[in-house]
Write the structure tokens for this entry.
Amino acid sequence: MIDSVVNVSNVSKVYGSKGENQFQALEEVSFSMQEGEFIGIMGASGSGKTTLLNTISTLDNVSGGQIEIAGTTITEMKEQDLADFRARKLGFIFQDFNLLESMTVYENIALPLFLQKMGGRNVQERVDQVADILDIKDILSKYPAIISGGQKQRTAAARALVHNPSIILADEPTGALDSSNAASLLETLQNLNEEHQVSIMMVTHDAYSASYCERILFLEDGQLYKQINKNGTREEFFKNILDEQAEAGRKKL
Ligand SMILES: Nc1ncnc2c1ncn2[C@@H]1O[C@H](COP(=O)(O)OP(=O)(O)O)[C@@H](O)[C@H]1O
Ligand SMILES: [Mg+2]
């Protein structure tokens, strides 16, 4: 049996309280993701991508439906347990890096381990290991302020990976990078997925970024309306994704 790492069933999300300015951001969204997949979530601005990722991230609650991650039904958990679950099982990469400026690159990466009360040699060994994978060993003693955008996002990726989470969740991770740093980060994510079997879910509105994934889910007005799989090369997948985007645009006219 192949284990699913994420199971989303009939998830809805309504912002705002009853009676006033309610907005339905997600409507009966269902899908599942197998362990070791690299999945992309695409859709126009405002289609609900971040909302979907935030409900899976346990950062936002659902209005209806159920989400299971690595066998745990997170939509039934209390906030205290959720914080613990998040720290142990999830890794995050955000568009704006979210590094702590007062800490070195090493300390930023080690933070999830400290939160789990890991200490001493184990921390050093694990940080060195992920810094090696992400090719940032030479900047471990530097502060975020003096490293490049590309290095910042590699640091964030190392931090997302260091505690060996069940899944890495990334929201527009290339959004603040120039095209060469973006390509390099996407190759790194692809490598983590292919060589180290890391499960990755990435939100993006950008077809080029999405072409590094194996499967794309398309959202429109809070509904999941289509999925496509990569069959051939990344270049072919890129063209398929562009075609899908064009079709979605035409439907709207
Ligand atoms: N906290 C919120 N309160 C009210 N509406 C929100 C909130 N967050 C997002 N929305 C609305 O939900 C819709 C989906 O937003 P979002 O998930 O951020 O879209 P995307 O990431 O695809 O651009 C948008 O119309 C947005 O305005
Ligand atoms: Mg968004």
Remarks:
- The chain has a mean pLDDT of 94.
- Helices lie at 49-56, 79-89, 105-115, 120-133, 149-161, 179-196, 207-210, 234-252.
